């Protein structure tokens, strides 16, 4: 009896699949799954991280210029686990906001405390060295204000 019930269920399932396929061919009902997806172009996400150096990624979040007098640039830097040191500098005053914890930071060769949520001012043209000794990615937000 059980074998008969299983066979009947299998046959009815096959018949319903045939009905679905026939309806799909007629342009109604549930469409068949595509056999292969080809030539898919994925749109580029706005503000996605881009490779900045061999050990870091960055993305621009905001960029404004007030008629050539003042420029404000907001960028995020990302250091993957175990990467660095990454050394950089900016021609004007910058603020570094530590978005994650436990990295190492040196400004002009002097070690700084890296604490999540802390903000550090960087003088113009000072060398900034970031290192990620952890097993998580580190994020730093950089706010640069240029007075021209």
Structure description:
- By secondary structure, the protein is of the alpha+beta class.
- The protein has 2 domains: 1-41, no CATH class; 50-147, Sandwich (Jelly Rolls), CATH 2.60.120.
- 16% of the residues lie in helices and 39% in strands.
- It contains 1 helix and 10 strands; from the N terminus they run H-E-E-E-E-E-E-E-E-E-E.
- It has one helix at residues 2-25; strands spanning 50-53, 56-66, 70-79, 86-88, 94-98, 104-107, 110-112, 119-122, 128-131, 138-147.
- The strands form 2 sheets. The protein has a 6-stranded antiparallel sheet, with no helix packed on it.
- The model has no long low-confidence stretch (mean pLDDT 78).
Descriptors for this entry?
10 strands, 148 residues, six-stranded antiparallel beta sheet, single chain, Jelly Rolls, elongated, four-stranded antiparallel beta sheet, alpha+beta
Structural class: alpha+beta
- Count the beta strands: 10
As laid out across the biggest beta sheet, the strand order is 1-2-3-10-5-8
Order of helices and strands: HEEEEEEEEEE
- Major sheet attributes: 6 strands, antiparallel
CATH superfamily of the largest domain: Jelly Rolls
Silhouette: elongated
CATH architecture of the largest domain: Sandwich
Report the C-alpha radius of gyration, rounded.
28 Å
Overall pLDDT level: 78
How much beta, percentage-wise?
A: 35-45%
Number of helices: 1
Q: How do you describe this structure in short?
A:
Helix content is 16%, strand content 39%. It is α+β, with helices and mostly antiparallel strands and 148 residues long.
